[in-house]
Write a structure and sequence with these properties.
Nucleotidyltransferase, domain 5; alpha+beta; 17 helices; 21% strand; seven-stranded mixed beta sheet; 494 residues; 23 strands
């Protein structure tokens, strides 16, 4: 039976699994990844440290009796990564992460430079500071000597694939979150890059990660003890592969991932652009004529970690987190690292609104859990308003381990939430994609029929739904009214 070695490279954790054709995870290893911060606002991964960590975890899961059965290696990696390199493709920097906020410092000037371009319609990416294009602008203005010495640029996907195979390419789903990948022509947008005196040839070609494969480098295979016929599947970004693992990208099924960040997306055959001025929907190509339309949050479990690490101990298993008081609610806008819509997001920060003397730790934790869910409802409304309708939601990610959270999402969205029967669904999605690319399954639907098993279904509590409907309207008003104040506040720096 063929096996896949699946590498899931996230912003905070690395996971490696060995998976068979039935979707059974034979062995799995995980490790936290260190974030490098050499100056205020920076957040990067060290590429050499990543290589060493990947090799160490791969060796732990590759038991001798299974090595001969490994036919595929595949990776899922994070979006928003930027690594600058010299003329020999040697790294000059680390790989930036979503939490790198340096581009906020120059974002107003960036918006002015691109004022004559409809960046959103071209790329499906609203004008927010976390994308790669504003980061390139930041380096071109604030790190001019470094920027002048750069010849090539990579992301997390191209970095990993080049190391494993020697080929310098990236996949469309990773390219889609750069803000200079044209969603209509499936290529780098020369016009957007030219404003920074850059050219498409400085970036890896963006191709179909669901199908493209290349042989594993001989030296890597020997290091891991693998046979010479192992093929490396390019793969897609981590959110897309989780969607594959949850639903096989079935039509009309909403995909929710809740981890450090969160997303709500639905597959479709064309990009969808938000008619609202807030540009809440991002349209990310998986490959030609196949998109994940929807939105994402920078802040999901991240603000919970902040509470725990900086303020007080929290108990996420307390059922009191589901209780709703008759008093006016404590509202949280949990936006510690900004958000991704063009109106509120670029300058957003965290807010607790309505704090009273009687509020306790439970109230603050509850407000964050609900603030994330209200933010996801903001995206859910955007999909409905743009004629994208969800018949069911399938939820994955580490957030499902917080027992009260799926119920909170069901109550706030007003729709059932289905959890999967298995765990590590991104790893399962990677295996499904590899086995499909390798011809073991005809397509992802075939793979999902053979591998995926439906798990627990969480129904909305109608009494809570009605209360949340009212509270959400206030949350939405608060969020939108704070938009201009966020920008004014961000300017109060010395």
């Amino acid at each position: 039976m063929a096996l896949t070695l699946a590498i899931d490279l996230g912003t905070t954790n690395l996971k490696v699994g060995l998976i068979n054709e039935l979707g059974e995870i034979l062995f799995s290893q995980a490790s936290a990844i260190s974030t490098v911060s050499n100056e205020a606002g920076s957040a990067e991964h060290d590429p050499e440290a990543l290589k060493n960590l990947i090799v160490a975890l791969c060796k732990k899961v590759l038991k001798d009796e299974y090595k001969e059965q490994v036919e595929f290696i595949i990776s899922s990696t994070y979006q928003f990564g930027l690594m600058m390199m010299d003329e020999h493709k040697r790294p000059l920097t680390g790989i930036t992460l979503l939490t790198d906020i340096r581009s906020q410092l120059t974002f107003s000037d960036f918006v002015s430079l691109y004022a004559d371009e409809d960046v959103y319609y071209k790329t499906g990416c609203p004008l927010i500071s976390q994308y790669v294009l504003p980061r390139l602008f930041y380096f071109s203005r604030k790190k001019q000597e470094l920027f002048k010495s750069v010849r090539y640029f990579a992301d997390s996907k191209s970095f990993l694939f080049e190391w494993l195979t020697g080929e310098w390419v990236t996949d469309m789903s990773t390219a889609a979150a750069t803000q200079f990948f044209n969603a209509h022509h499936y290529q780098w947008d020369e016009g957007l890059l030219s404003k920074l005196n850059l050219a498409a040839g400085q970036f890896p070609p963006a191709i179909d990660g669901t199908a493209y494969m290349a042989p594993l480098k001989k030296e890597i295979g020997e290091m891991l003890g693998l046979n010479k016929n192992v093929r490396v599947v390019l793969g897609v970004y981590d959110g897309a592969v989780l969607g594959i693992g949850l639903s096989g990208l079935a039509a009309n099924v909403g995909i929710v991932n809740v981890g450090t960040t969160a997303m709500l997306r639905i597959p479709g055959n064309q990009p969808v652009f938000d008619k609202n001025e807030n540009k809440r929907i991002q349209a990310y190509a998986i490959h030609k004529n196949h998109f994940l339309n929807g939105g994402a949050l920078n802040n999901a479990a991240l603000p919970l970690d902040w509470l725990k690490n900086n303020l007080f101990e929290i108990n996420l298993e307390d059922q009191a987190l589901l209780q709703l008081s008759k008093e006016p609610p404590l509202i949280s806008l949990p936006y510690l690292t900004g958000e991704r819509d063009s109106k509120t997001g670029p300058y957003a920060s965290g807010v607790f609104f309505g704090v009273r003397r009687h509020h306790t730790r439970i109230d603050f934790v509850r407000s964050v859990l609900m603030g994330v869910a209200y933010s996801l409802r903001y995206l859910y409304e955007a999909l409905n308003e743009n004629d994208l309708y969800i018949k069911e939601i399938r939820m994955g990610g580490g957030g499902v381990n917080i027992q009260v959270w799926p119920q909170i999402f069901a109550d706030i969205l007003g729709v059932p939430v289905t959890l999967t029967a298995g765990k590590e669904m991104a790893q399962i999605g990677n295996a499904m994609l590899a086995f499909t690319a390798g011809g073991i399954y005809n397509d992802l639907h075939d793979a999902s029929q053979n591998i995926l098993k439906e798990g627990k279904r969480v129904e909305p509590d109608e009494s809570s739904v009605n209360i949340h409907n009212e509270h959400y309207q206030f949350f939405k008003k608060l969020r939108e009214n704070l938009g201009p104040l966020y920008q004014e506040h961000a300017a109060l720096r010395y």
